[in-house]
Amino acid sequence: MADSYDVVVIGAGPGGYVAAIRCAQLGLRTACIDKWINKQGEPALGGTCLNVGCIPSKALLDTSERYHELLHGLPARGIRAADVELDVPAMIAHKDQVVRDLTNGIKMLFKANGIHWLQGSGRLLDNRRVEFTPLAGGAPQVLEADNIILATGSVPIELAAAPVDGELIVDSTGALEFTEVPGRLGIIGAGVIGLELGSVWRRLGAEVVLLEAQDTFLYAADQQIAREALKHFKRQGLEIHLGACVTATKAHKKTVTVSYRDAEGDHEIKVDRLVVAVGRRPYTDGLIAPECELLLDESGFIHVDEENRTNLPGVWAVGDVCGGPMLAHKGSEEGIAVAERIAGMHAHVNRETIPMVIYTQPEIAWVGRTEEKLKAAGVPYRAGTFPFAANGRARAMAQTAGMVKILAHAETDRVLGVHMIGPMVSELIHEAVVAMEFGASSEDLARTIHAHPALAEVVHEAALAVDGRAIHRAR
């Protein structure tokens, strides 16, 4: 007889483990299947984000930023250190410890909430059944469930012209495990992952070259912000080539030759290591039995409606595997919403107010529509901008790069989009998210008292600027 559950979740990344916890909180008998094995060879929860994505990359970004600031930023402020040494293995060990602490934390949450953690792979069968194959071996088991949540996430896209060998040519996971700083690092892709990884190793001393096939830098971002970002990244020493399509790679004993084509013709560069960071694809390998007739779209994403229902009764999908922005927080909110719908509650995910963040220096963040999208849609708007260079707190921190830009409807003044580049905008963006969630106007932000001195005053001044009345900037 098959084991029976109210809910079976396949995948324990930010979408899956959060969905499992919320289901258990709501009194549903819940099992979560996951096959992740960490670098220590042990089963681990948290998926890509916690193990080889969001969390370890931020640990390295923070460490590399502190190292760079110690060498290049603090001397001008009266702090000098002699004989500064970089210990890359220790840096990697710190990153690994952060990951272990957080993944073990999820393990404790599963135990506290009575979730059955099934270590192995899950395969969707028909009639609300799941085939579970244990990592430890043994015969597959069939589980029955009233509801099944597919949350298997995504994996790096492979590039035929640059096959990953795990040594000289690596994907984003491999770029988190270097034990020494490459002399020259090549990165294919200048999106979020490429820029963050490039920033880490550039700060630590590598010469970094990014090859981006798109002609437009950060095409999804507001282009005024993107142009500002490109200017700062080039000043930092990141060599960024746009419209550069990689045509071939050749790995030698200690280097890689990369051939690419752009508007000016064919080129070759030689690098010590090469990172392939051209995006991610939905991970559905081995997930679906053919008889299920689960619908996928033309890009391989699981087809879902606005409430994350698939075409099969009782089968749901959340996170990267069902499309939309590939963001951990988007997957988590979808997981919570699905759990609450299963329990008969009302739930809603506002996909118009999902914040986007790039954790470079300066940081980049935005929510809502860009100026380009508003123009294309014919929406009347007004824009207000204000620079961090005119902010007292940013001056005191010696972090004056960037600006805040607010776009508001020209007739109703409702905030339509907020775009930022500057210090700590990964935190500042949430004021804009809350404002938009409550349908605020730029006048609402302009009349909200902000502490002084604070970086958030730049948001305040940008709101004032929508109406042409910024205080700390000459007309």
TrEMBL record:
Q: Which residues form the Pyridine nucleotide-disulphide oxidoreductase dimerisation domain?
A: 354-463
- Cofactor annotation comment: Binds 1 FAD per subunit.
- Read off the SUPFAM superfamilies from this record: FAD/NAD(P)-binding domain, FAD/NAD-linked reductases, dimerisation (C-terminal) domain
Report the EC code(s) recorded for this entry: 1.8.1.4
Instruction: Specify which residues bind FAD according to the UniProt entry for this protein.
Output: K58, G122, T152, G153, S154, D320, M326, L327, A328, H329
Keyword DNA repair (UniProt): no
What InterPro entries does the database record attribute to this sequence? Class-I_Pyr_Nuc-Dis_Oxidored, FAD/NAD-bd_sf, FAD/NAD-binding_dom, FAD/NAD-linked_Rdtase_dimer_sf, Lipoamide_DH, Pyr_nuc-diS_OxRdtase, Pyr_nucl-diS_OxRdtase_dimer, Pyr_OxRdtase_I_AS
**Could you tell me which residue ranges the FAD/NAD(P)-binding domain spans?**
5-335
Q: Which key words are in the record?
A: Cytoplasm, Disulfide bond, FAD, Flavoprotein, NAD, Nucleotide-binding, Oxidoreductase, Redox-active center
Q: Which reaction does it catalyse?
A: N(6)-[(R)-dihydrolipoyl]-L-lysyl-[protein] + NAD(+) = N(6)-[(R)-lipoyl]-L-lysyl-[protein] + NADH + H(+)
Q: Does the keyword Flavoprotein apply?
A: yes
Q: Which residues bind NAD(+)?
A: G189, A190, G191, V192, I193, G194, L195, E196, E212, G279
One GO MF annotation is: dihydrolipoyl dehydrogenase (NADH) activity
> What family does the Swiss-Prot or TrEMBL record give for this protein?
Belongs to the class-I pyridine nucleotide-disulfide oxidoreductase family.
| Name of this protein | Dihydrolipoyl dehydrogenase
What organism is recorded for this protein? Inmirania thermothiophila
